[in-house]
Amino acid sequence: xxKVCTIAWVHGRxxxxxxxxxxxxxxxxxGLTGYARNMDDGSVEVLACGEAPQVExxxxxxxxxxxxxARVDKVLTEPHQPGREYQNFGIRY
Length: 93
Prior knowledge:
The chain has 93 residues and is of the alpha+beta class. The chain has two helices and five strands. The chain has a five-stranded mixed β-sheet with strand order 4-1-3-2-5, with helices on one face. The longest helix is centred in the middle third of the chain and has 12 residues, at 52-63. Its EC number is 3.6.1.7. Belongs to the acylphosphatase family. It comes from Pseudenterobacter timonensis. This is Acylphosphatase. Residues 5-93 form the Acylphosphatase-like domain.
């Protein structure tokens, strides 16, 4: 299996609803590394690295709406080559 990294921007009602914490929990459950952080435009940026099928599962979870308290309008993704390797899935501020 090959390791991949995907960066995603999640738009909608995704700040102030526990989105980053739920994403961290889901990503950790899938064995992924990376981070979730709030952006100034109200979106959440998610970097997910790991086995391709697991990264795809997280992206599908994001597109399906994430936690129940959130409302996801759109998810934009692109492949990413991070400048460093992440040891876990964290929350950035």
